[in-house]
């Protein structure tokens, strides 16, 4: 038996591909460390220190990492011997813990997808390993980067950063500073917008600000005990109502300047122009593709993680959707994508038996419209923005006041769905922003949010009853178990309400995605039509696959906009692939009233789909 902690399938596939032989049976102890304690660090150093009598072997007394910093052969040999022995010694107790956590217990047979191999056990241990195999294949496939668009966006954002810097220079004089300088070493004369210390001096020494109301001290103060200057703190100040007009404008512009310079340019656009292979920085390879490292053994709820770069959060903020457009299908290919429809609400409706949600999904009503109507009554019904057909509980408003009312109720529901109190919901609502950095609900009072929260609880009292039931279950057994595949949690913040009620829903979503992923891979195997085809992307409740264009198509062909497809439908081969992906991601759990449906689309980029 080949034992390895985070050696896993990457090394195994190297042996298979390059040596042409299949290794001995594999025990990847990292997965069992996750089953043992999903909320705790899973590194070999941490697990080995807990489960063996070896306290430290990976670093010297000075803290130097031996595996990378030592030139002493004897030291390296001792390190490798201990590393190997620790790996071997933790295997049995980790397997025992995994057994106790249900990792080897058979999953219910009525949800086993047809694509699951008959010779493979249908349990969480095997499902997680199969998911990691999928992660390896997504890494091998990579995602093609449109360098022409990337270059245009880089130029555009560099210009935008310069303009924002000029605006900050105009605003600084209105708020107590002399000038803005990226090389300033002290806030006495100029302020460096990238310096936390100098922004701190401006906010708390010159402006005399304090912790924003309703913001918890742990979120406000840094580890060193100083007042924070991060984005969450700045949003809190904007929502506090304590800033004057000039200060508000300065903070808003500072946030956008930082975001564009550090996140958009520094983290995404500039690194993706690099052609040399540096896996830690997620650079573009010679074939034009960037290869993220996908993992199935990091998150406690079973979601995948992505790094180098993180392809799950590219362009996730409002107004940054264009960043997703640089991740595209290579010429001669097209992307097909689908995501689950309102997965969390559908799972919640079935798991917690919320009658109003069950009614909405069975009759096709929009659940956010029903909440807005219960909250605002006739004001929502008569609000502007309903379009020619007027008020409806089934269709979303097109804009105007009705859309604002629906949006704020949607934000309230998702902010409060896992037991958040009205004060927390108020903080989320007032810091929810649009693409241009505006906070449309910043003026909303805590009293107004509390009234909305009370209206929600009155119309759907089953939420609070479910939270109480979950808490009693946790107090009785010390862990939670999701209802689809039976994945167990860790201690969940020692019984913190939002963590306890959050786990079963998020973990159930991950289990549903495992079923969908197996079905999708059966329909679109990796490299089924050449390198880079098959699944290339997964983001919690969505999947994207890359397929070849039909013969004779323009290599850069773009599908018509969805609104135009009635008169200009998709080519039959592509429409068939879209429907196939949509159907493979539609999951029915026996005993659940609501089917987990999915909606698919076709496009050249991740933004399109």
Helix content: 40-55%
What is the quaternary state of this protein? single chain
Radius of gyration: 26 Å
Shape: globular
Please give the order of strands in the largest beta sheet. 11-12-10-13
User: How many H/I helical runs?
Assistant: 22
Provide the low-confidence segments as ranges. Answer: none
Beta strands, count: 13
Span between termini: 43 Å
| Secondary-structure class | alpha+beta
The percent range for strand residues is 5-15%
Instruction: Characterize the largest beta sheet: strand count, sense, and whether it forms a barrel.
Output: 4 strands, antiparallel
Look at the structure and give the mean pLDDT: 88
Topology overview:
Layout (H helix, E strand, L loop, with lengths): L1 E3 L3 H12 L6 E3 H8 L7 H8 L14 H4 L3 H28 L23 H18 L1 E3 L1 H26 L6 E2 L9 E2 L4 H11 L10 H4 L10 H10 L4 H25 L19 E2 L2 E3 L9 E3 L19 E2 L4 E8 L2 H9 L3 H9 L3 H10 L1 H4 L18 H17 L5 H9 L15 H14 L2 H16 L14 H4 L1 H27 L10 E5 L3 E7 L23 H13 L13 E6 L6
Parallel strand pairs: 1-2, 4-5
Antiparallel strand pairs: 3-6, 3-9, 7-8, 10-12, 10-13, 11-12
Helix pairs in contact: 2-5, 3-5, 7-11, 10-11, 12-13, 12-21, 14-16, 14-18, 16-17, 16-18, 17-18
Written overview of the protein:
The mean pLDDT is 88. The chain contains 22 helices and 13 strands. Helix content is 47%, strand content 8%. It has a four-stranded antiparallel sheet with strand order 11-12-10-13. Helix 2 (29-36) crosses helix 5 (73-100), helix 10 (231-240) runs antiparallel to helix 11 (245-269) and helix 12 packs across helix 13 (355-363). The two termini are 43 Å apart. The chain is globular, with a radius of gyration of 26 Å. With 609 residues, the chain is an alpha+beta fold.
């Amino acid at each position: 038996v080949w034992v390895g902690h985070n050696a896993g399938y990457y090394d195994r596939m190297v042996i298979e591909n390059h040596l042409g032989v299949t290794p001995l049976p594999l025990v990847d102890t990292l997965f069992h460390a996750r089953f043992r304690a999903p909320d705790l660090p899973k590194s070999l150093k941490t697990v080995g220190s807990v489960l063996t009598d070896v306290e430290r072997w990976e670093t010297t007394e000075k803290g130097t990492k031996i595996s990378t910093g030592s030139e002493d052969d004897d030291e390296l040999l001792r390190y490798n011997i201990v590393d190997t022995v620790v790996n071997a010694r933790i295997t049995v107790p980790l397997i025992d813990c995994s057994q106790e956590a249900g990792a080897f217990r058979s999953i219910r047979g009525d949800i086993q997808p047809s694509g699951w191999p008959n010779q493979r056990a249908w349990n969480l241990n095997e499902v997680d390993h199969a998911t990691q195999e999928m992660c390896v294949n997504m890494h091998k496939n990579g995602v093609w980067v449109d360098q022409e668009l990337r270059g245009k966006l880089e130029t555009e954002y560099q210009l935008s950063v310069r303009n924002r810097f000029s605006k900050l220079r105009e605003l600084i004089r209105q708020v107590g500073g002399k000038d803005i300088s990226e090389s300033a070493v002290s806030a006495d004369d100029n302020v460096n917008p990238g310096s936390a210390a100098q922004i701190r001096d401006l906010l708390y020494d010159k402006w005399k600000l304090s912790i924003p109301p309703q913001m918890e001290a742990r979120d406000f103060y840094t580890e060193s005990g100083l007042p924070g200057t991060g984005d969450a703190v700045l949003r809190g100040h904007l929502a506090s109502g304590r800033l004057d007009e000039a200060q508000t404008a300065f903070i808003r512009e500072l946030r956008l300047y930082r975001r564009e310079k550090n996140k958009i340019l520094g983290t995404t656009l500039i690194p993706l122009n690099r052609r040399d292979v540096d896996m830690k920085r997620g650079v573009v390879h010679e074939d034009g593709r960037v290869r993220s490292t996908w993992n199935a053994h990091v998150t406690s709820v079973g979601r995948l993680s992505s790094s180098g770069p993180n392809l799950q959060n590219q362009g996730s903020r409002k107004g940054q959707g264009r960043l997703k457009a640089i991740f595209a299908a290579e010429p001669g290919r097209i992307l097909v994508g689908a995501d689950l429809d309102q997965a969390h609400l559908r799972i919640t409706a079935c798991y917690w038996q919320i009658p109003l949600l069950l009614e909405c999904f069975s009759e096709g009503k929009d659940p956010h419209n029903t909440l807005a109507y219960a909250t605002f009554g006739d004001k929502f019904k008569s609000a502007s923005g309903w379009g020619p057909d007027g008020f409806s509980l089934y269709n979303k408003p097109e804009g105007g006041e009705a859309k604002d009312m629906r949006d704020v109720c949607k934000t309230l529901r998702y902010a409060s769905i896992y037991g958040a109190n009205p004060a927390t919901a108020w903080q989320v609502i007032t810091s929810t922003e649009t693409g241009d950095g505006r906070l449309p609900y910043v003026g909303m009072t805590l009293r107004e949010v509390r009234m909305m929260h009370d209206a929600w609880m009155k119309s759907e009292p089953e939420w609070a009853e479910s939270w109480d039931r979950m808490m009693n279950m946790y107090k009785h057994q010390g862990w939670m178990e999701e209802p689809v595949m039976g994945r167990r949690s860790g201690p969940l913040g020692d019984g913190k309400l939002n963590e306890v009620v959050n786990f079963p829903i998020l973990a159930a979503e991950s289990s549903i995605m495992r079923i969908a992923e197996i079905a999708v891979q059966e329909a679109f195997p990796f490299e089924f039509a050449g390198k880079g085809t098959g699944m290339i992307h997964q983001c919690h409740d969505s999947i994207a696959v890359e397929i070849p264009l039909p013969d004779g198509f323009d290599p850069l062909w773009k599908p018509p906009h969805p609104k135009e497809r009635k008169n200009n439908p998709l080519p039959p081969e592509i429409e068939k692939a879209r429907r196939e992906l949509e159907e493979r991601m539609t999951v029915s759990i026996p005993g659940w009233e609501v089917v987990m449906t999915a909606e698919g689309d076709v496009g050249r980029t991740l933004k399109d789909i």
